[in-house]
Write a sequence for this structure.
């Protein structure tokens, strides 16, 4: 995905995405329970967390103040499709399923047209999948940042471009470090039986070199 420069106004997207990647590490998807607001403090007002409640339907469980401003009301509990026009909602529902089921990350370019006293508004959104405590991919860490004056809310967006990226699944051998012995313990080695021929030679050699500590002495009385 793109990395936005601070002066572009879209820096919160990069902050959220970098935090998600740091949590993910070598895994396919990080867990919802690992999200710590302190890690994205400078981007919290633009962040949100979605929960999948039905195919194509995901509701906001956490929503930053910027999302409240776009809707003109409390956004928590609303479906993500509430931020979009009627024509765009079906594609948004399909996109959510792509992110959950693939799993994949997504970046969306959106725009709201001018209506009445409302000025045109451009926005970008990222969707990053998360696992629930049950291990299923049913949560999303996301971010929406708009550019321009919001004006009279609610503002609803049309889709201009969608970039979906399938997440690479690490191979079993990738990221798996060789197990090291604990403390001062030496690494274990597999026992290999000694060949019979070599063993016989060893015994013969040992018998030859062994000093005669005990000798039978015969005396005539």
């Amino acid at each position: 995905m793109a990395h936005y420069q601070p002066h572009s106004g879209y820096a919160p997207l990069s902050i959220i995405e970098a935090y998600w990647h740091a949590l993910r590490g070598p895994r396919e998807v990080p867990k919802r329970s690992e999200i710590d607001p302190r890690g994205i403090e400078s981007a919290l007002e633009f962040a949100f967390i979605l929960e999948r409640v039905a195919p194509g339907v995901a509701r906001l469980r956490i929503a930053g103040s910027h999302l409240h401003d776009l809707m003109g009301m409390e956004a928590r509990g609303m479906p993500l499709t509430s931020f979009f026009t009627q024509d765009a909602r079906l594609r948004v529902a399909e996109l959510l399923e792509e992110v959950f089921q693939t799993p994949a990350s997504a970046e969306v370019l959106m725009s709201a047209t001018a209506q009445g006293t409302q000025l045109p508004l451009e926005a970008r959104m990222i969707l990053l999948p998360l696992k629930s405590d049950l291990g299923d991919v049913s949560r999303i860490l996301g971010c929406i940042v708009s550019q321009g004056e919001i004006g009279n809310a609610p503002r609803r967006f049309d889709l201009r471009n969608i970039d979906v990226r399938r997440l690479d699944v690490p191979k079993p051998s990738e990221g798996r470090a060789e197990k090291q012995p604990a403390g001062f313990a030496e690494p274990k080695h597999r026992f290999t039986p000694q060949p019979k021929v070599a063993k016989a030679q060893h015994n013969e050699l040992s018998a030859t070199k062994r000093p005669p500590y005990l000798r039978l002495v015969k005396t005539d009385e």
